[in-house]
Structures are given as structure tokens and as C-alpha cells.
Design goal:
228 residues; mainly alpha; two-stranded antiparallel ribbon; 60% helix; 2% strand
């Protein structure tokens, strides 16, 4: 499948996903199973070890990757130093991660969706509103900042490895790495009531679509997978 068609397919999938969650109660059905009125969420948000492993560590990993990419971009070409990917690859990865995280942060500040732990159904004070109900700005009405899921966006951005690795198996492993990393972070956020399922699913699809678009802007791999 060529890149333009893949972008169209991903965009269609994103639209269908938004329609699914907007017209059903799937988010609440999932979240109801992660919350107990007597004991609270499956994972406490202030539990130190889960927070360290699934919140702070992923942030540090993504930050370290960005720093490493900047070093690679600034590093002059040298025959004595063998680096597994090119400067263009590093630029591509850096732009993908930075723009995906920035876009998720911007959107969450525009959409106004509350996280599960903020709504009355799960012990909070705010009403439950779906995306289209939350977006219209009403002066004086409280607004949330839960959609999309910013924290896992940097992890999902690592799906961009698919476009810089050589060989079908390596590319698939790169894609799987980003997916697994993103869902590990995303599921933790759901377990402590920070995000709904839709927040994580939409973040994943949006990240992949942005990676596809950026692969057209910063071409790093030929269609046949040949070396750059």
C-alpha cells in the first residue's frame, strides 16, 4: 500500500473511531470495570512504584531519546564513527516525537474533555461529557484537559521507527515497539482513572497518521525498503 493511500485509510479509521465512541457508551463500559466505589481505581494514582515505572520512566526514556537524536543531528559525519542511522533518520524521528507530543498537548487544552476521575460517576465533581459535548466553549463552565492522552503520545510516536529501519521484519518490530510502549503507558493511565479507552485509541491512530504524513514530508525510506 502506498503512503498516500495508507494516510487515507488511517484518516478514515480515525473518523470511524471517533464516531464509535461518540455514539456509544463504550468508554463508560470499560471504565466501570476499572473502578470500585468502595476501593477506588485499580491502581492508585499516588502509588510510588507504578508511578515511577509507568509514568516517570517513560517520560525520561522519551526525553533521553530526544536528546540522543539532537546529538546525532549535530554530530558531524565521520568514517571512524559508525552510527546505525542517518542524520535524516534522526531528524525524522525527532520531528515525529516532538510534533506528536505537542499536538496532543495542544488538543487536550482545546477539547475540554474531563478525565474519568474528575466526573461524578467515579467520585469526582464534574459531569460526564463526550468530545462533541465538551468542545463548545461556554463561559463560566468548567473544562477538562483529558483528551487526547498526552502522556502516551510520546510512546506511540516511536511507531515512526517503522520508516527508518531496513527490512520488513525490522520495520514491523519497530512498529510493534511503539505500539507496545504506548499501550503500556496508556493502560496504566486508564487503571488510575486518568484517561478513557477512547483517549488512548485516538492518540494511537492520530500518532500513526502524523507519522505517515511526516514520512512524506521527510522521506527516509524508498517504497521498496532499500537503503536510504
Amino acid at each position: 500500500m502506498n503512503t498516500d493511500r495508507a494516510i487515507l485509510v488511517t484518516g478514515t479509521l480515525l473518523a470511524l473511531t471517533l464516531i464509535l465512541f461518540e455514539t456509544t457508551s463504550l468508554d463508560l463500559l470499560v471504565q466501570d470495570r476499572l473502578y470500585d466505589p468502595a476501593s477506588g481505581w485499580r491502581v492508585r494514582g499516588d502509588a510510588p512504584w507504578p508511578r515511577l515505572i509507568f509514568y516517570h520512566a517513560p517520560t525520561a526514556i522519551v526525553g533521553a531519546i530526544l536528546v540522543g537524536l539532537l546529538v546525532r543531528i549535530a554530530l558531524p559525519a565521520s568514517r571512524s564513527i559508525r552510527i546505525p542511522f542517518s542524520r535524516r533518520d534522526a531528524v525524522f524521528l525527532f520531528v515525529c516525537i516532538s510534533l506528536i507530543v505537542a499536538s496532543a498537548w495542544l488538543l487536550k487544552n482545546l477539547t475540554g474533555v474531563f478525565s474519568p476521575r474528575e466526573i461524578a460517576r467515579y467520585g469526582g465533581e464534574q459531569p460526564y461529557r463526550k468530545l462533541l459535548e465538551a468542545i463548545p466553549y461556554v463561559p463560566g463552565r468548567a473544562r477538562g484537559d483529558g483528551f487526547p492522552a498526552t502522556h502516551c503520545s510520546g510512546a506511540f510516536a516511536l511507531m515512526s521507527l517503522y520508516f527508518i529501519l531496513d527490512g520488513r521484519t525490522a520495520r514491523r518490530l519497530g512498529l510493534l515497539c511503539g505500539l507496545a510502549f504506548g499501550w503500556i503507558v496508556g493502560i496504566y493511565q486508564m487503571l488510575k482513572g486518568a484517561h478513557y479507552l477512547s483517549h488512548t485509541v485516538v492518540t494511537m491512530i492520530l500518532a500513526w497518521m502524523m507519522v505517515q504524513v511526516l514520512s512524506r514530508v521527510i522521506p527516509v525510506q524508498r517504497e521498496n525498503g532499500a537503503a536510504r
